[in-house]
Amino acid sequence: MWIKEGIKQVNFFFINKIKRALIENTLPLCNMASSKNSTSRQKVLVTRSDIPEPGIKLLKEKYDMDIYPVASPMPREELLSRIKGKNAILCMLTDKIDKEFLDAAGPDLKVVGTLSVGFDHIDLSECHKRGVHVGNTPNVLTDAAAELTVALVLATARRLMEATKQVVNGGWAKCSWAPLWMCGTSLTGSTVGIYGLGRIGFGVAERLKGFKVKDIIYAGRKEKPEAREKLNAKFVPFNQLLEQSDFIIVCTALTPETHGIFNLEAFKNMKRSAIFINTSRGKVVNQEDLYTALTTGLIRAAGLDVTDPEPLPTDHKLTKLSNCVLLPHIATAVVETRENMSIITANNILAGLEGKPLPCPL
Q: Given 70, 73, 197, 343, which is the most exposed site by the fewest CB atoms within 10 A?
């Protein structure tokens, strides 16, 4: 009897030992698998905390996110440090993606998604050389930018900012109903010249037709048949655009060819009654020359949504001029537009990290 009991205890001892061994050996394997799964998730750097949530939500479902916890541009050193080991970056115009950045990123970086149409902050040739995909948001903001451009045309031509000040500083009481007080310029019967008839320029022209303008002319890299068909717009040389336009609206991309193209020589070729509007990029304009043109009567007025630098210093001499309307780069500042931009940027990153064609590649 005692022999059987002894055998049972021995068996029980060995069974428990085997169980413990299995448990001890299995747990590390489970932990290793879990660790492997977590480290295999690709990593995305987001350069500021206030990127609209719809795009961020899409990325969070698949990737490990490193979101800079401040609603302002990331300092350069921080950017270069945090990009190491990341597979993608969601950036903005304030983040310079150049050789130094790409060297810091190393071979892990696969995709750059910029929450913008403009891409002059990105060295495309260097990205392409390294096999880094780049995507932007070209279509979603056309309506918002075109609307703001028209608003800026009207605000500048009809002197709305000046008039608002007259209400609060007592000027209205002093000059009430004087025949020429606060008189501006009308779009009706005017010639509108658009430099850069891309999506936004085309959208601006479509909207201005409703203001009974006489002619729409445009200049740029090439003639566009649809402009003649839909807008009755005429393609002209750059100098002719300057000479004939009552309103000159700049909607071009910033390239080596367009950098500083609106200089003193260009302003001298414009009508002295011309209204100059820029919603493209600040560096398209030589601001010193623009200041000269506005203060010497070479042109009547200017409206700028973009400047160089941005933000423009509060004591900049352009801010002192009554005939210069300045906005803080708000052409796309519509909630729905910005949310859609974040979704497009996220989809560019998702596609690039999954080895698929980007929806909006550069």
A: 70
Q: What is the DSSP string of 306-327?
A: --SSSSPPTT-GGGG-TTEEE-
Backbone angles phi, psi at 18, to 5 degrees: -65, -40
Helix (H, G, I), strand (E, B) or coil at 299: coil
Peptide bond before 311: cis, by omega within 30 degrees of 0?
yes
Following CA atoms 93, 250, 150, 170 in sequence, which dihedral angle do they give, to the nearest 10 degrees? 90
Q: Which residue has the tokens 């560019």?
A: 348
Q: Which of 128, 259, 316, 329 is catalytic?
A: 329
**Catalytic: 329?**
yes
281 Ramachandran zone, left/alpha/beta (phi>0; psi -120 to 50): beta
pLDDT digits (tens, 9 = 90+) for 248-280: 999 999 999 999 999 999 999 999 999 999 999
Rounded to whole angstroms, the Cα distance separating 201 from 340 reads 21
Q: What is the pLDDT of residues 186-221, one digit of tens each?
A: 999 999 999 999 999 999 999 999 999 999 999 999
Q: Residue 107: is the preceding peptide bond cis (ω within 30°)?
A: no
d(CA 350, CA 352): 6
